[in-house]
Amino acid sequence: MRLPDFLIVGAPKCGTTTMHEILKQHSQIFLPSEKEIHFFDNNKNFSKGINWYKNYFKNVAHDKVAGDITPSYMYYDYAIKRIYDTFGSNVKIIFMLRNPADRAFSEYSYNLSRGLIKEQNFEKALSLEVINKDLPPFERRYFSFISRGYYGQYIQNFLEYFPEKNLHFILFEDEFLKDPQKCVKELQEFLGVKYEKLNTDLKSNTGFVPHYPGINKLIYDPNPIRSVLKKMIPVYTLRKELKELVKEINSNKKVKQAKLSIEVKNNLLQEYYQRDIIATEKLISKDLSSWGIKNKGYES
Fold it and tell me: 274-290: per-residue pLDDT in tens?
C-alpha cells in the first residue's frame, strides 16, 4: 500500500468534482471511486490510522500517480499539519479557486437542496456561520459560507509547510471554464504524467430544487438510516448511483434555482473579500481582477 502523490485540497463548489471525473480518464492517474476521503480533516477518520487511509490506494499500479480529492482540507490548520507530518513537503497540492461570493452562494444552494440547511434566504443564511461558531471545526462545514472564501489566509498556511513549486492554482472561471483543455493539460504537466487529451465536456454536482428536502437530507447527511444503507450496500459506486437516482426523482424541474443578485454579490466582495482577494492575487501570481475588486476601484 502507498500514499497518494497529489492532493486537491479545495475549494468546494469550484469544480473539484468535475475535475475528479476528468482525471479518472487518464491512464496514468489513479483516483479512489469515493472522491472525498476526509482523512486529514475528519478526526473520526483520522483516528482509524494511516493504514485505513492507505487502503484506498492499495490497487495503485507502480506506473501511476495517485490522488486524493477532498476540497475541505485547505480550511483546517490541523489538517495541513497532518498532511505535512504524513507526506513531508514533497506532495503536490492543487487549489481550485472561484470568485468567493459566487462560491459562497453556490455552496449555500447546494446545502439547501440537500436538506442540510433550511434557511431559504441567502443573506439570512450567512448568519448561521456566527450562530454555529462554537461547533467543532469539521461540524461547522455546512455553515461556513463566508470564511471558506478567504483563500489567501489558507494558501499562506500551506506555504508555511510546502514550497511554492509544489502548489498549483486553477481559476474556475478564467481557466477551467474558459479553456478546460489547456487547464487540464497544464495540470497533467504539473503532475508529471504523459499528456492525454481527456473529455472535459462533463458536469457534476449540478444544482437542483428538490420536491422534498428531507429526503435529500436522509441520503446526504450522516444519520442512522444512511449508516444502515452503507452496511447493506458496501460498494460505493452502487450507493452513488442510488443517490443520483433519488436525486433525479426528487428534483423539481419546474422550479428554477435562485440566482445571486449583482447587488448582493458586490456587497459580499466589498464587505468581506476585497483584502483577501488582493492578498491571494499576490500569493498565486495570477490576475484576479475578473472577480470584481480592482474593476470596482476598491482599495486594500
Answer: 999 999 999 999 999 99
- Please give the distance of CA 209 from its chain centroid, rounded to a whole number: 21
Scored b (16 or more CB within 10 A) or e, 275-293 reads ebbbbbbebbeeebeebbb
Residue 152, all three cell numbers? 489567501
Question: pLDDT > 70: what percent of the chain?
Answer: 87
Instruction: Supply the DSSP string of 236-285, one letter for each residue.
Output: HHHHHHHHHHHHHHHB-TTSPPP---HHHHHHHIIIIIHHHHHHHHHHHT
Q: Which three cell numbers stand for residue 142?
A: 455546512
Mean pLDDT, rounded, for 250-257: 65
> Which set of grid coordinates corresponds to residue 186?
497544464
Q: What is the DSSP string of 152-184?
A: HHHHHHHHTTS-GGGEEEEEIIIIIIT-HHHHH
Task: Give the closest residue to 93 by CA, choosing from 215, 222, 6, 185.
Answer: 6
> What are the beta bridge partners of residue 96?
170
The residue among 9, 15, 151 whose CA lies nearest residue 91 is: 9
6-99+146-204+280-290 to CATH, choices 3.80.10.10, 3.40.190.10, 3.40.50.300, 3.90.1150.10: 3.40.50.300
**At what angle are helices 213-220 and 100-113 packed, to 10 degrees?**
100
Q: Where are the domains of the chain?
A: 6-99+146-204+280-290
